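Hi Y.,

Following your request, here is the sequence exactly as I used it, all 174 residues.
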Amino acid sequence: MPLTFHLDPLLTPALHEGILTLWSAVSNAGGAVGFVPPVTREEIRPELLRHLTAMAEGRHRLLLGLDGHGTPAATAFFSFNTHRLMAHWVWLYTVMVHPAHQGKGYGRDLMKAAETAARDFDGIDAIRLGCRGGLGLEHFYASCGYKEVGRVPGAIRVAPDDHRDDITMLLPLT
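Below is the corresponding structure, written out as tokens. Let me know if you'd prefer a different format.
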């Protein structure tokens, strides 16, 4: 059953907790979404609250994918630039699909839904995202139309002896 995507959903306490559960599951499965396993929901909660605060201030927007039971199964957060010379593109952050739903094409569906949403944002010409090297994520994003436009070797430290490249990908919308 395909996911249904919602831009700027009404964030009820149940959805808030569902996103927290999703983020925890993705992180603990080794997903590159800002944490390394093991991580608890309570360790992730402050980061989610920062995202929600940015949403309330109009700096972020949420694209939420729900499964057939209405449970959060995928997310992507758009972050708008406040600098006037960079206001023509958005960042895409915290792009994730629940591990139970991976391998079903939902990641590709999420990326297509994000592209569609961004095309409707006034004045936005491109989407940028960063990804952690060493997992092949840049190949997935390339298959969705993104191009690698930058790489900082070893910029992400996931453990004292494990440094990964910070890769910047770009999808022009024009």
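The mean pLDDT is 97.

Thanks again,
Q.
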